[in-house]
Amino acid sequence: MTDLSQQIADLGASLFARRLTHGRTGNLSARTGGGFLITPGGGSLGAVGDLSLVSLAGEHLDGPRPSKEAFLHAALYRARPDAGAVVHLHSTHAVAVSCHAGLDPDDALPPLTAYYVMRVGRLPLLPYHAPGDPALGPIAERAARTAHALLLANHGPIVAGAGLAAAADAIEELEETARLWLLLRERPTRPLTPDQVRSLS
Ligand SMILES: O=C(O)[C@@H](O)C(=O)COP(=O)(O)O
Ligand SMILES: [Zn+2]
């Protein structure tokens, strides 16, 4: 295994062990040369073996059959030339938020804490598409030009980062903030003000 493959396998094992995704859900990728290495379709992030190589155009170049979401990862890499990794999970609280009625599609969660603003920022909600539906590709690519974290309606989060650690940090912060938001649903809540948010960027 190369260093990068080992890092993807280690991150998958860590996320799975902490139940940030379950069963055979979720997929991870990291940019390499003109494309990216991605977890294969139908596997568990708890036991990542050989990886698939996919081009930025979304073509399968080498290795096992890639994740059905490889086209989405490709869309995020194209939209964000600074992105070195992409993580998609079915983390419970973020998925719960993604099923809520009445979310703001431009920014699904309020800025509850400074850490959330710094790690996640704006969170566009993308309309529901079945997993693997390539029609979501152009929508995700457009949204990812101005936000590195996206919430797929009735599905879950997908986040790009400078590298695997940054993408994992951001998606974990998103999961914890989703949990806080659900905990606070019935209570009067005071998110950060626009000035407080601005002072963090
Ligand atoms: O929700 C789904 O089916 C996919 O988005 C997913 O999480 C796992 O699919 P593969 O990466 O193709 O295993
Ligand atoms: Zn999924």
From TrEMBL:
<keyword id="KW-0479">Metal-binding</keyword>
<dbReference type="GO" id="GO:0005829">
    <property type="term" value="C:cytosol"/>
</dbReference>
<protein>
    <recommendedName>
        <fullName>3-oxo-tetronate 4-phosphate decarboxylase</fullName>
        <ecNumber>4.1.1.104</ecNumber>
    </recommendedName>
</protein>
<feature type="domain" description="Class II aldolase/adducin N-terminal">
    <location>
        <begin position="6"/>
        <end position="182"/>
    </location>
</feature>
<dbReference type="InterPro" id="IPR036409">
    <property type="entry name" value="Aldolase_II/adducin_N_sf"/>
</dbReference>
<keyword id="KW-0119">Carbohydrate metabolism</keyword>
<keyword id="KW-0862">Zinc</keyword>
<dbReference type="Pfam" id="PF00596">
    <property type="entry name" value="Aldolase_II"/>
</dbReference>
<dbReference type="InterPro" id="IPR050197">
    <property type="entry name" value="Aldolase_class_II_sugar_metab"/>
</dbReference>
<dbReference type="InterPro" id="IPR001303">
    <property type="entry name" value="Aldolase_II/adducin_N"/>
</dbReference>
<comment type="function">
    <text>Catalyzes the decarboxylation of 3-oxo-tetronate 4-phosphate to dihydroxyacetone phosphate (DHAP) and CO(2).</text>
</comment>
<dbReference type="GO" id="GO:0046872">
    <property type="term" value="F:metal ion binding"/>
</dbReference>
<dbReference type="GO" id="GO:0016832">
    <property type="term" value="F:aldehyde-lyase activity"/>
</dbReference>
<keyword id="KW-0456">Lyase</keyword>
<dbReference type="GO" id="GO:0019323">
    <property type="term" value="P:pentose catabolic process"/>
</dbReference>
<dbReference type="InterPro" id="IPR050013">
    <property type="entry name" value="OtnC"/>
</dbReference>
